[in-house]
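Narrative of accomplishments. A recurring question from our advisory board has been how the design workflow behaves on a single, concrete structure rather than in aggregate. To address it, we present the structure tokens for one chain from the evaluation set, followed by the sequence designed for it. No filtering or post-editing was applied between the two.
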């Protein structure tokens, strides 16, 4: 693990999150140098049992979202244990959870209670829906939000059958948004000395994310039926089959398309009014995609990559999960690496992808066993 030198070094985060969304946010903060104290109930984060494991409580889903943290155990239904948490709050910068507001209030850790102990703290929480709306008390998990926010419907519009993305897209993306929001609140506190409450609603966050490139004519007409970016629903918006595999490519500007047409030996298309401008290409996107697909099918992936590289057209072979884990580039860059866990042997770890020139970031601690840092955080009992 790396030395704690990231841009959030010196920030203390009290983390009561479980599952995916919250742990994604706090792991990012931990990788950026924050001291993240993960407070778990006696049974631990449920993700400790999600997936293969070598020892109880250290399953892959937990390991993937909970490095760079210390783990302590508290039963917050016990008054003395709640007071131990509040003692941590006294010296913390951030308090974060992903339980519904009513549940947090019942435990005595709502915004008012926590900020009464530490008015300068950034109190952040994520729930399924807006905190003041009629859905505020409804439960929500990733699949529910993927469906309700339009993701599954967009896939159905494109491919004929509604499906979820094959990963926890809503949870993970909302985790990134939550980390961003907390960091912004910390900047405000640095400037003003003022703490605040930050709330992230999953549905509203995902709808704003999903609709940004699908406003289309609806932005001007106000008619819901006018929404939808046509290129996103083209049957040819997919990796193009080659003679021996698949390749992904995308041209956007007029100049890129002229180079692409030259590579495809279709210079005639550069002056075709259907394809010469961005407006024309958007209006004839399905026909254009069919032309490109037919040409790409005639050569191998490697040959197309060589030709497209020479023309400076963005492209890459399509990778499967197996391909990614076998890619020497990702291992050489350190995005994938093997490391020795103190208790659970050798793991494969996904690295931190962002480079900070002055404050290097990355994993600071291996995923912790349940309650591993009780003595370190609270001190040994006499």
């Amino acid at each position: 693990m790396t030395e704690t030198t990231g841009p959030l070094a010196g920030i203390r985060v009290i983390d009561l999150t479980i599952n995916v969304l919250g742990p994604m946010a706090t792991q990012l903060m931990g990788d950026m140098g924050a001291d993240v104290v993960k407070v778990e109930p006696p049974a631990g984060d449920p993700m400790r049992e999600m997936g293969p494991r070598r020892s109880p409580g250290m399953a892959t889903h937990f390991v993937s979202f909970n490095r760079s943290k210390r783990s302590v155990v508290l039963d917050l239904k016990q008054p003395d244990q709640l007071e131990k948490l509040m003692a941590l709050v006294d010296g913390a910068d951030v308090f974060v959870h992903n339980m519904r507001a009513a549940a947090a209030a019942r435990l005595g850790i709502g915004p008012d209670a926590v900020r009464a102990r530490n008015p300068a703290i950034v109190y952040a929480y994520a729930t399924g829906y807006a905190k003041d709306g009629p859905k505020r008390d409804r439960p929500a998990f990733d699949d529910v939000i993927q469906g309700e926010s339009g993701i599954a419907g967009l896939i159905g519009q494109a491919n004929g059958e509604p499906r979820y993305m094959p990963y926890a897209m809503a949870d993970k993306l909302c985790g990134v948004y939550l980390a961003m929001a907390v960091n912004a609140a910390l900047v405000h506190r640095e400037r003003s000395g003022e703490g605040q409450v930050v709330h992230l609603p999953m549905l509203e966050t995902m709808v704003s994310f999903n609709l940004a490139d699908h406003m289309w004519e609806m932005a001007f007409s106000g008619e819901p039926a006018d929404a939808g970016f046509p290129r996103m629903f083209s049957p040819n918006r997919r990796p193009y089959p080659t003679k021996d595999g698949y390749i992904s490519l995308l041209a956007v500007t007029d100049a890129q398309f002229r180079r692409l047409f030259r590579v495809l030996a279709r210079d005639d298309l550069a002056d075709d009014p259907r394809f010469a401008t961005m407006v024309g290409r958007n209006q004839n996107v399905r026909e254009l995609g069919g032309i490109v697909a037919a040409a790409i099918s005639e050569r191998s992936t490697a040959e197309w990559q060589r030709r497209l590289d020479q023309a400076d057209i963005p492209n890459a072979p399509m990778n499967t999960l197996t391909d990614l884990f076998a890619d020497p580039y990702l291992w050489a860059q350190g995005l994938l690496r093997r490391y020795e866990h103190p208790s659970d042997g050798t793991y494969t770890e996904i690295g931190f992808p962002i480079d900070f020139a002055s404050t290097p970031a990355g994993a600071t601690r291996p995923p912790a066993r349940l309650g591993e840092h009780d003595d370190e955080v609270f001190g040994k009992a006499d």
